[in-house]
């Protein structure tokens, strides 16, 4: 679990909460980072040959590198820098469980900051960014576009989204699998309170289709530490029928054990599938989130 | 296990507190909307049962701690450990003194204190072992009693190891009306303990510790005390003064008690209390019938005299009682007395010189002296005049006294009957006169078979008119003359012009001269004949030879003589005794060696014997009695069927129920270490090292501390 000192200013989610619009918040985060608050080892992109990749049905014939065919007797496609600009789709969990927040910040708000910041960065770099908000069902899908104007649409959607319903990420991913045909990056920002098998299975599908997958597992401090003391009736946000009367001190260890198992399952499954899994408490500064992203891009 | 403070066991109800808190706590749980409840559900499956077990365990620890705390506050102890602890102690000699004085008959809690004292002593004896010795003694031992048939041999007190002996001595303990003699009793106890070889010695005194007997007592009066002596006092009742009203004494008006004549009985009461008594009923009972009652108010410590005026009952022996409304010490609420009443004495006045009227008769003044002037005057005597010629027809046994006034002669039959009359107890008074001649009188009355005169009469002695004889000496101790004992000069004013001379009296042992003239000649002599008395007055009953009949002293003199001769003094209060003082019962001269039987108020019989005491000049035939049982009226059956009554009353020495407090006891019993225990808390604090009780409170408190520590650690771990 991320447990580092939160930087002040725009990386502090609580500070960001005081900024009026989502786009502005994203801008502050990214520009702030880019202006030297981080020394991130990233480079710019050029439209130069980047790499070969093996031919897949559907690729344009004119892009076949015949020299490589003659050498290897196999079909390869040339990819240029400009073609490595992503088509990223951000899956933002807008279920009811994301409304939970201690420390004065909801998980959903943190997730929105993260999504907006990522979108800003990617759009600034010329990438294509789309957005999927979901709960029990797909709520809204904005296909990937490029250009900073698209950020407005994305941030407006973020601001307009009100989390509700259960978390059915796996189902939504399955539904979106048919719509996301071109390979790109799948960014999951969620608390992942869904059946891991279903989620991983779908993410595995995306990996199979050579998509990059990043998972930002957003959890609240209380969910991670379970710091409760008094005898409490815990009622599930998404399922009011699920309630437990518990003495927190007596059940804490068992709960943390279950949570750890849950997190380990996701972590191990993602590792197996080469999915970039990151667990983020809502107290983690956003620059770290973005740094991880950029490192990945490198 | 027993508890010193069993009421504190109600504290165990506090065990409901943690249970209630547990229930309330559960109801006041917070509600928190939480997204990760699924993990709690999974965790609860694993931990629910364990959690509930932990919660029950915590609740049990808290309830148990409170329960043990409540039990600890109730001061539990194990009495059973006494015997185990005692078994290791060396042998102990015990002398246990029980106060059996009258104050211990005080009834509080419905039972006399002596009875409760015996129960306490039974508890003192109970834990003693086979190697311990003990002796149970009364504080007031029975003194050897005269009049007890088959008096048992003297018992020597020894310490015994026999529990049967202890219990028998304890059961035989009875109240004693004697005065407390602490010094003698404690000296005896100390001697017994010093003689014991036991390494440990204990003296136990069970008493109410009234001041009686303790006033001048101090342990420093003893030269030697037993070594290693523990002194244990057990107090019955409290150190506060007990309230008590007592009939202290009783007086009856001056005897004789003649039937039909008013009789005054005065009871003296004292309120020995700090509180007043209002409307206290005081009853006078005669022959077991209530004849009078008064309601009396008594201030604290006040003494009042309560008079009763009754009519003397018919002639005979009577028993009386002053009775108060009974209080807690009832033995001094009664005062018994006995008295004898007589019918007015019948006096046969024989006129030796009758005249045409009573005024001219020889017996005029005598009759006037013996008859009441008015009906309101006491009629002590019933004088019946007869001319001397009519004596043959009189039955002398119908009279108490026969007075011969200047009688010239009597027939031999009359003389014989007179002698029998006097010998049987009658009284005979002879007056001289001109018809009384020495020779015929000496023939009649100075004879070996009818010695009614102690000496022979002589010739009349005539005094010159201007030199009359007066009474020079009187015998003031004589009952007939006791009225003149304080004023003997009253008789000296009478003048005697002629009297009869008498022979020498000093050779007659039983004759007494009661009045003597200036010349030394006897004026009045007396001597006993059988059971009766004979008096000879050597002058006349009228004014012929003296002016005595005209003097005011004539009436009291005649009354005294006649009362004495008619034995009216018997009409008086009968013997009475205050326990335990012996009483002396007087018999007649012929009773020497004779037996008499006394039946006590509770039906026991005592046999006594009269014995002569005193010198030959003043012999007394007496019997001493002290074998009392209970207060009341005792019946006396003497020689010749004579009956009498003896009133026996409880001692009043124990009526003062002021107590000695503990500091006063300690001051008197220094330097011995003293342990004073109260009856109310007896046995709850056992300082006798031989009988320690195992107190458990500290163990319970230790357990409470341990439980609370465990609960605290366990709760925090959870």
Provide a descriptive summary of the structure in words.
The complex is a heterodimer of chains A (298) and B (718). With 298 residues, chain A is an alpha/beta fold. In chain A, strand 6, helix 8 and strand 7 form a beta-alpha-beta unit. In chain A, helix 5 packs across helix 11 and helix 7 runs parallel beside helix 8. Chain A is globular and about 75 Å long. The two termini of chain B are 37 Å apart. Chain B has five domains: 99 residues, no CATH class; 197 residues, 3-Layer(aba) Sandwich (Rossmann fold), CATH 3.40.50; 98 residues, Immunoglobulins (Immunoglobulin-like, Sandwich), CATH 2.60.40.10; 225 residues, Rossmann fold (3-Layer(aba) Sandwich); 72 residues. Strand 8 of chain A pairs parallel with strand 2 of chain B.
Brief overview, please?
The complex is a heterodimer of chains A (298) and B (718). By secondary structure, chain A is an alpha/beta fold.
Top keywords for this entry?
heterodimer; A: 298 residues; alpha/beta; 2 domains; six-stranded mixed beta sheet; 42% helix; disordered N terminus; B: 718 residues; Rossmann fold; Immunoglobulin-like; 5 domains; eight-stranded mixed beta sheet
Give a quick account of the main beta sheet of chain A: strands, pairing sense, barrel closure.
Answer: 6 strands, mixed
Number of domains of chain B: 5
- Count of individual helical segments of chain B: 12
Based on the structure, what is the oligomeric state of the protein chains?
Answer: heterodimer
Tell how many strands the DSSP assignment of chain B holds: 37
Strand content of chain A: 15-25%
Mean pLDDT of chain A: 80
The residue ranges of chain B in which pLDDT falls below 50 over 5 or more consecutive positions are 688-692
- Alpha-carbon Rg of chain B, integer: 42 Å
Number of strands of chain A: 10
Arithmetic mean pLDDT of chain B: 86
CATH class of the largest domain in chain A: Alpha Beta
């Amino acid at each position: 679990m991320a447990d580092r000192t939160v930087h002040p200013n725009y990386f502090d989610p609580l500070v960001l909460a005081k900024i009026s619009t989502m786009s502005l918040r994203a801008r502050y985060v990214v520009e702030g980072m880019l202006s030297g608050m981080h020394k991130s080892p990233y480079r710019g992109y050029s439209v130069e040959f980047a790499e070969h990749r093996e031919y897949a049905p559907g690729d344009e014939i004119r892009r076949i590198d015949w020299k490589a065919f003659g050498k290897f007797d196999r079909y390869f496609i040339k990819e240029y820098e400009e073609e490595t600009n992503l088509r990223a789709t951000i899956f933002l969990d807008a279920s009811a469980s994301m409304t939970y927040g201690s420390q004065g910040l909801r998980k959903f708000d943190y997730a929105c900051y993260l999504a907006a910041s990522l979108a800003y960065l990617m759009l600034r770099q010329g990438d294509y960014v789309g957005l999927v908000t979901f709960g029990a069902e797909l709520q809204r899908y904005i296909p990937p576009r490029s250009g900073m104007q698209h950020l407005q649409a994305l941030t407006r959607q973020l601001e307009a989204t009100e989390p509700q319903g259960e978390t059915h990420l796996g189902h939504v991913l399955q539904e979106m699998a048919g719509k996301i045909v071109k390979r790109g990056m799948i960014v999951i920002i969620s608390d992942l309170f869904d059946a891991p098998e279903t989620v991983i299975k779908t993410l595995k599908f995306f990996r199979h289709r050579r998509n990059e997958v990043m998972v930002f597992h957003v959890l609240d401090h209380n969910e991670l530490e379970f710091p409760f003391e008094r005898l409490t009736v815990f009622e599930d946000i998404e399922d009011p029928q699920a309630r437990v009367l518990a003495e927190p001190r007596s059940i804490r260890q068992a709960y943390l054990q279950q949570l750890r198992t849950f997190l380990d399952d996701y972590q191990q499954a993602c590792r197996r599938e080469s999915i970039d899994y990151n667990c983020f408490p809502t107290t983690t500064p956003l620059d770290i989130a973005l740094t991880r992203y950029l490192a990945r891009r490198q | 296990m027993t508890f010193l403070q069993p009421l504190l066991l109600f504290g165990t109800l506090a065990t409901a507190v943690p249970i209630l808190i547990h229930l309330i706590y559960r109801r006041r749980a917070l509600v928190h909307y939480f997204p990760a409840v699924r993990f709690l559900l999974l965790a609860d499956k694993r931990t629910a049962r364990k959690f509930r077990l932990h919660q029950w365990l915590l609740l049990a620890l808290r309830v148990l701690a409170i329960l043990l705390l409540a039990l600890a506050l109730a001061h539990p102890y194990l009495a059973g450990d006494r015997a185990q602890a005692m078994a290791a102690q060396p042998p102990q000699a015990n002398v246990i003194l029980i106060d059996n004085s009258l104050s211990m008959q005080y009834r509080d809690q419905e039972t006399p204190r002596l009875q409760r004292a015996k129960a306490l002593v039974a508890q003192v004896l109970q834990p003693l072992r086979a190697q311990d010795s003990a002796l149970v003694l009364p504080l007031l031992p029975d003194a050897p009693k005269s009049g007890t048939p088959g008096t048992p041999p003297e018992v020597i007190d020894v310490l015994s190891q026999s529990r049967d002996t202890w219990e028998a001595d304890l059961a035989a303990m009875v109240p004693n009306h004697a005065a407390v003699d602490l010094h003698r009793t404690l000296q005896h106890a100390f001697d017994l303990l010093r003689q014991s070889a036991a390494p440990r010695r204990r003296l136990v005194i069970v008493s109410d510790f009234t001041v009686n007997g303790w006033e001048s007592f101090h342990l420093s009066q003893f030269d030697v005390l037993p070594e290693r002596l523990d002194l244990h006092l057990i107090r019955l009742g409290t150190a506060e003064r007990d309230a008590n009203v007592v009939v202290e004494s009783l007086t009856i008006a001056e005897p004789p008690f003649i039937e039909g004549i008013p009789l005054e009985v005065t009871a003296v009461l004292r309120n020995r209390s700090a509180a007043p008594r209002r409307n206290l009923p005081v009853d006078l009972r005669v022959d077991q019938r209530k004849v009078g009652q008064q309601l009396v108010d008594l201030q604290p410590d006040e003494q009042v005299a309560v008079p009763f005026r009754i009519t003397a009952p018919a002639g005979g022996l009577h028993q009386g009682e002053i009775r108060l409304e009974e209080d807690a010490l009832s033995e001094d609420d009664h005062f018994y007395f006995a008295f004898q009443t007589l019918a007015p004495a019948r006096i046969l006045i024989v006129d030796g010189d009758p005249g045409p009227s009573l005024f001219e008769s020889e017996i005029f003044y005598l009759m006037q002296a013996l008859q009441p002037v008015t009906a309101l005057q006491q009629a002590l005597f019933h004088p019946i005049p007869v001319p001397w010629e009519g004596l043959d027809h009189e039955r002398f046994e119908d009279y108490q006294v026969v007075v011969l006034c200047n009688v010239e002669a009597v027939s031999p039959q009359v003389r014989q009957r007179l002698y029998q009359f006097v010998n049987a107890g009658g009284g005979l008074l002879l007056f001289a006169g001109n018809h009384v001649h020495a020779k015929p009188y000496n023939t009649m009355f100075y004879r070996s078979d009818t010695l009614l005169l102690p000496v022979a009469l002589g010739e009349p002695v005539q005094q010159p008119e201007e030199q009359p004889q007066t009474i020079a000496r009187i015998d003031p101790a004589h009952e007939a003359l006791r009225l003149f004992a304080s004023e003997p000069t009253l008789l000296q004013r009478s003048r005697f012009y002629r009297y009869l001379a008498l022979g020498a009296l000093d050779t007659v042992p039983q004759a007494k001269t009661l009045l003597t003239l200036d010349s030394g000649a006897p004026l009045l002599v007396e001597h006993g004949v059988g059971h009766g008395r004979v008096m000879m007055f050597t002058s006349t009953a009228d004014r012929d030879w003296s002016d005595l009949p005209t003097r005011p002293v004539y009436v009291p003199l005649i009354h005294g003589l006649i009362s004495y001769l008619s034995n009216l003094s018997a009409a008086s209060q009968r013997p009475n005794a205050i326990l335990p003082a012996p009483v002396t019962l007087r018999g007649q001269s012929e009773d020497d060696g004779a037996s008499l039987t006394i039946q006590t108020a509770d039906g026991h019989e005592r046999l006594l014997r009269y014995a002569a005491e005193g010198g030959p000049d003043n012999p007394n035939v007496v019997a001493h009695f002290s074998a009392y049982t209970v207060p009341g009226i005792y019946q006396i059956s003497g020689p010749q069927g004579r009956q009498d009554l003896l009133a026996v009353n409880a001692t009043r020495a124990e009526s003062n129920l002021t107590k000695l407090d503990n500091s006063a006891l300690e001051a008197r019993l220094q330097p011995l270490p003293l342990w004073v225990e109260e009856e109310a808390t007896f046995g709850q604090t056992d300082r006798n090292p031989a009988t320690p009780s195992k107190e458990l409170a500290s163990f319970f408190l230790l357990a409470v501390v341990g439980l609370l520590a465990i609960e605290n650690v366990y709760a925090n771990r959870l």
